[in-house]
Design goal:
- It contains three helices and seven strands.
- It has one domain: Nuclear Transport Factor 2, Chain: A, CATH 3.10.450.240.
- It has a four-stranded antiparallel sheet with strand order 2-3-6-7, covered by helices on one side. A three-stranded antiparallel sheet has the order 1-4-5.
- The longest helix has 21 residues.
- The protein is globular.
- The chain is of the alpha+beta class.
Length: 191
């Protein structure tokens, strides 16, 4: 699970002075110089991109599962950072889920905003099927996503997205450029 936290640290300064045991006569008062007030500064913890698992070198079911899990972790990373470079590299050109995420992230981060929260945890990933004609796997994973806030450029919360749990189906294929995400959708839980 990619756990990430953006923190805010308030930096302050402590000024101390010393006095002589016998004070010297004071000079006439001069124009007062305003003392600068320290301002809080935001320190954002660096969010690391998920590491590609070694199993993604495999072209079989094990590789497909590793790729699907990696893509879910990459989803959380993209939401947290706005960094689309790896997302674009692993997304198929006609992947509607992929382009939808790209559009949302560009809209928020392009306007100076960001997403906060939304870590993803996975449990129970398995291959549901294999399409022999094109060599694509459908991989199912149970997921939970922590609550997510969308902040505007001033840091104000503009939307809160509740925590979510469910099952996702990811269609993945191994090609000359490695594992590629063809699409993703939510799956209905069977009774």
């Amino acid at each position: 699970m990619a756990a990430w936290v953006a923190g805010v640290a308030v930096l302050g300064a402590v000024l101390t002075g010393c006095t002589d045991p016998e004070p010297a006569p004071s000079p006439p008062p001069a124009a007062a110089t305003p003392t600068p007030t320290p301002t809080p500064s935001e320190t954002v913890e660096e969010i690391a991109a998920p590491e590609r698992p070694a199993e993604m070198e495999r072209t079989d079911e094990v590789g497909a599962i590793a790729a699907a899990e990696y893509f879910m972790q990459l989803f959380a990373y993209v939401m947290a950072t706005g960094d689309l470079e790896e997302w674009d590299r692993v997304s198929a050109q006609d992947c509607g889920f992929c382009s939808g995420l790209r559009s949302d992230v560009e809209g928020v981060y392009g306007a100076g905003g960001k997403y906060q929260g939304g870590g993803v945890a996975l449990e129970g990933t398995e291959v549901l099927g294999f399409e022999e004609v094109i060599g694509a796997y459908t991989v199912a994973t149970s997921y939970s996503i922590q609550p997510l806030e969308q902040l505007d450029a001033s840091g104000e919360v503009v939307e809160v997205i509740d925590a979510e749990t469910g099952d996702a189906g990811l269609d993945v294929i191994y090609s000359a450029r490695g594992w590629t995400l063809l699409g993703a959708s939510t799956l209905e839980k069977s009774p």
